[in-house]
C-alpha cells in the first residue's frame, strides 16, 4: 500500500513538473511572439501571415501606422483582392507569374508590384515570403515581410528622365530624339507616310551671353523652348541638341509646304522680342532653319539630320552679315 502511495505521489510530482515546464515554454513562446510583434510595430517594414487560401491573418509594421492604414481591413482577403480594381495590366501579368510560385509552395524574394490608391497615386512595395507547413507536412499558408520601395522607383525614374531630357529646357535631348526619330521613320516606312525634320539655331545668341552673362542666355533658351512648343502639335517632338541648336520632328506632315509653314511660324515667333529677367533691354534674336524630308530627301535619321543641318547653314548664309557674325 505504501508503495502504491509513493508511486502516486511520484506521478503527481512528475505531472506537476511537466505541466510547469509546459507552462513555462508556452509563456516563453508568448513572450517571443510579443517581442516579435513589438519589433514589427517599430520596424519600417511590415510583417504578414496568410492562411492556406492566402487570406491575410496578420499584418503589422510601423509603416502601416505612419500611413494610417488599419491592418484589420486586410484580414480575410488575399493580396489580389486588396488590389482589385486598381491593378494595371502589367501588374496583373506579374501576379499571374507570381501565382505559379505560390502554387508550387516555394519561397520567394523581393516580389515588387505597384499599388494605386483612390486618388491615383502610385506606390511600390516589395514582399518576400516562405511557405508554412505543419508537422505532418500539410501546407498552412505563407508568412513574410514587406517594405515600401517607392523612393527607389522615384530615384530611378528621375535618373532615367535626366538621361533623356535636357536639364535646362526640359526638352528631349539628343539621345531621346534619335530614338523617337528612328521609330518615326519605321512607322512612316510601314505606313507609306512622310515626315519632316527642322534643324535650327539662334541668330545673335552669342552676344547675349557675352554682354549679359550665361544666366541670361540660359533664361533665353528656356523662353525659346516655350515659344517653340506653342507652335508645334503635341504629336511632334522638339529637342535641344546642345548650345543654341534645336531640332523638330514633324510626323505625318503630308505636303512639303506644311513644314514650310511651320518654319515660317517659327521664324516669326523667335523674331519677336524677348524680355528676360535681369536684362535691361529687350533681346532680339532670330533663327536659321534647315528642313529635310523623309522619304524624298533621305531614308535614315542620320542622313536627315546631316542634310537639315547643312541647309540650316545655307539659310544662315542668306541672313545679313551681322546675323551670321553673331552666331
Order of helices and strands: HEEHHHEEEHHEHHEEHEHH
Helical amount:
40-55%
Number of strands: 9
CATH level-4 homologous superfamily of the largest domain: Reverse transcriptase/Diguanylate cyclase domain
Overall, the morphology is elongated
Q: What integer is the average pLDDT?
A: 84
Rounded to an integer in angstroms, the radius of gyration calculated over CA atoms is 34 Å
Number of domains: 2
Q: In what range is the share of β-strand residues? A: 15-25%
The termini sit apart by 121 Å
Helix run count? 11
Strand arrangement, largest sheet?
Answer: 2-1-5-4-3
Alpha-beta classification = alpha+beta
What CATH architecture of the largest domain would you give?
Answer: 2-Layer Sandwich
CATH topology of the largest domain: Alpha-Beta Plaits
Which segments are poorly predicted (pLDDT under 50) over 5 or more consecutive residues?
A: 323-327
Largest sheet: 5 strands, antiparallel
The CATH class of the largest domain turns out to be Alpha Beta
Amino acid at each position: 500500500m505504501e508503495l502504491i502511495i509513493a508511486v502516486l505521489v511520484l506521478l503527481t510530482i512528475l505531472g506537476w513538473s511537466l505541466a510547469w515546464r509546459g507552462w513555462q515554454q508556452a509563456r516563453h513562446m508568448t513572450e517571443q511572439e510579443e517581442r516579435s510583434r513589438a519589433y514589427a510595430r517599430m520596424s519600417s517594414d511590415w510583417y504578414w501571415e496568410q492562411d492556406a487560401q492566402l487570406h491575410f491573418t496578420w499584418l503589422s509594421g510601423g509603416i502601416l501606422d505612419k500611413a494610417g492604414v488599419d491592418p484589420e481591413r486586410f484580414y480575410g482577403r488575399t493580396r489580389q483582392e486588396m488590389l482589385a480594381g486598381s491593378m494595371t495590366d502589367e501588374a496583373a501579368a506579374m501576379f499571374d507569374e507570381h501565382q505559379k510560385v505560390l502554387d508550387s509552395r516555394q519561397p520567394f524574394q523581393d516580389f515588387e508590384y505597384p499599388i494605386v490608391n483612390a486618388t491615383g497615386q502610385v506606390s511600390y512595395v516589395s514582399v518576400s515570403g516562405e511557405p508554412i507547413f505543419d508537422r505532418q507536412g500539410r501546407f498552412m499558408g505563407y508568412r513574410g515581410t514587406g517594405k515600401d520601395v517607392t523612393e527607389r522607383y522615384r530615384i530611378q525614374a528621375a535618373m532615367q528622365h535626366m538621361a533623356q531630357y535636357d536639364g535646362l529646357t526640359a526638352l528631349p535631348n539628343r539621345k531621346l530624339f534619335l530614338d523617337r526619330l528612328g521609330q518615326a521613320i519605321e512607322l512612316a516606312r510601314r505606313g507609306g507616310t512622310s515626315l519632316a525634320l527642322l534643324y535650327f539655331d539662334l541668330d545673335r545668341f552669342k552676344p547675349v551671353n557675352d554682354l549679359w552673362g550665361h544666366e541670361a542666355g540660359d533664361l533665353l533658351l528656356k523662353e525659346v523652348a516655350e515659344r517653340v512648343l506653342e507652335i508645334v502639335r503635341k504629336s511632334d517632338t522638339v529637342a535641344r541638341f546642345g548650345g543654341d541648336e534645336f531640332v523638330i520632328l514633324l510626323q505625318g506632315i503630308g505636303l512639303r509646304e506644311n513644314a514650310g509653314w511651320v518654319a515660317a511660324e517659327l521664324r516669326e515667333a523667335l523674331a519677336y522680342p524677348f524680355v528676360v529677367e535681369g536684362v535691361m533691354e529687350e533681346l532680339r534674336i532670330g533663327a536659321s532653319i534647315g528642313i529635310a524630308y523623309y522619304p524624298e530627301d533621305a531614308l535614315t535619321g542620320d542622313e536627315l539630320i546631316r542634310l537639315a543641318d547643312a541647309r540650316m547653314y545655307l539659310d544662315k548664309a542668306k541672313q545679313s552679315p551681322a546675323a551670321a557674325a553673331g552666331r
